[in-house]
């Protein structure tokens, strides 16, 4: 029997509420026929006005083809398979949701009261009961597959029960914990809990504590919370660690004899100053014909990590390394990632290489792929290589300057072919001895970064082309591609509105000209304050790159064939490509088949989880950094606008906070969605993207990763 809910006649949203309840009544049993009187009883509509509203709602649902009229007073669910869709639900901070269905253009909006027991990321079955021009509205009728059953939160001991309050209402749910399932956890501690039961009659699941993370507030506890919240385990299973311990550090001469030996060829790495795992190295050799032999040497992880091993299963499960502000959660145990596989200086290492015979203008004459042995002569940091490029004397100056010249030619050629000219910018923190942020550092790409980037792109593209380009006498075989779809014209229209606020106007309606026009805009504003904000918004307006078995090319790089080959220590996709390449070079027997589709889905999903964890880590350290500046005033730029407030990035420290809509002084402000602005109802004062404002830091909440700001006018 459907559980009665007291009908609230005084609610301003009573029509919406009663609609949801009535639909649920019928969906309990799609075949049942109910009279108006029976429905009124089930929803506890006792007075005449409430019963009339029930009757009006039944008629409305009939007009919308949600219900079918049996006779004047009797109704049943209008069951139609065309009204049901499966998809992934995305829950917003406000508790509503959107079901995204593959192959369906419109998302399905799910009001909070229609979400049922679905949680963020779950695969659900939804029923559409109202169609609209831009989006449909529906209700979740079944959870097909849980995205996750483990959640991080804080324990609160109540009179009647013990509750886990999730860190995030978007990605978590309150869980009742029985005393016998506490497993030693105490009031106020942050814990990891697992759902063990969720009765259909209950709005709250039951769970047990599986790990105590510590008291809230410490950096270690908060970082563990971020990781576990995304389903990322910072600890390797013992079986994986045991396998890694047996990996030999010394190279085997018999194995070296099977490989092309580059140990006498000048080789070096260029990496961040704090890098511990070195995926790639560059070798440089002048040939007798005047050409250069440039080798791109990649750590040969596939030699150590093979299908069927516990390390391989764990690497697939993780899919990538995760880089938080104060720690790295590697894809592979340190025995491999930092020692055996890492191309450390002055050590012989196994590698998998792409070797190019080319001239100083970047023209490639020959290429070779295969297993190698190398010896890195020098480890450069990006800063050291950059100083040499800028004119300072240093080791291998001639070689560094030559490959820098080639890299610039390769980059210019890419841009002429339609690649996007994106300058990467990354917020970093300098930490003090206690692990707290002492300084904000904005890392930007300089020539040394671009040098390495271009040669990695060259290797990735050419390896993929070699494996995938149609060739006579060769049947195509399954392959992982790194794809990037063309821009969505509607999203580009929103971006055009955004840049108009800064006084810029470009044509973004012609897909063939979007990259060219964006690059012209970037070149024009590269030295301006708004450059970072505009570039960031342009990236967000683009499609997201992903791993797929069907190749559609990479729009942002303007490559027809592209995959990842150059970072197998930290990305599982690269490890798979290494295996496919080795099979093509040797046996021609390719082990991967239809399972590549599932691998692509998994690693794409885990890449998104890692990115979210990294973003949340940065937000947490932002709150720590500004916590000592509460009450102080900063100049800032409006970096985002939403129906609940204004986001402002402070110019001095690059940290972002929000001014709630209700706290904007001087008027009653509202969000104008059509013109994407905040406007005052009486004064018509506007706040737009890119406006310069002054804000004071009102409050900081590290637990919520939130900085509350006030406008200073």
Report on the architecture of this protein.
The chain is of the alpha+beta class and 713 residues long. Helix 11 (397-416) crosses helix 12 (447-468). The chain contains 17 helices and 34 strands. The model is unreliable at 1-13 (pLDDT under 50). The strands form nine sheets. The chain has a seven-stranded mixed beta sheet. The chain has a five-stranded mixed beta barrel with strand order 4-5-6-8-7. The relative contact order is 0.07. The chain folds into six domains: 14-77, Winged helix-like DNA-binding domain superfamily/Winged helix DNA-binding domain (Arc Repressor Mutant, subunit A, Orthogonal Bundle), CATH 1.10.10.10; 81-145, Nucleic acid-binding proteins (OB fold (Dihydrolipoamide Acetyltransferase, E2P)), CATH 2.40.50; 150-216, OB fold (Dihydrolipoamide Acetyltransferase, E2P) (Beta Barrel), CATH 2.40.50; 239-483 and 553-594, no CATH class; 489-542, no CATH class; 630-711, Nucleic acid-binding proteins (OB fold (Dihydrolipoamide Acetyltransferase, E2P), Beta Barrel), CATH 2.40.50.
Q: Which features characterize this protein?
A:
disordered N terminus, alpha+beta, OB fold (Dihydrolipoamide Acetyltransferase, E2P), five-stranded mixed barrel, 713 residues, seven-stranded mixed beta sheet
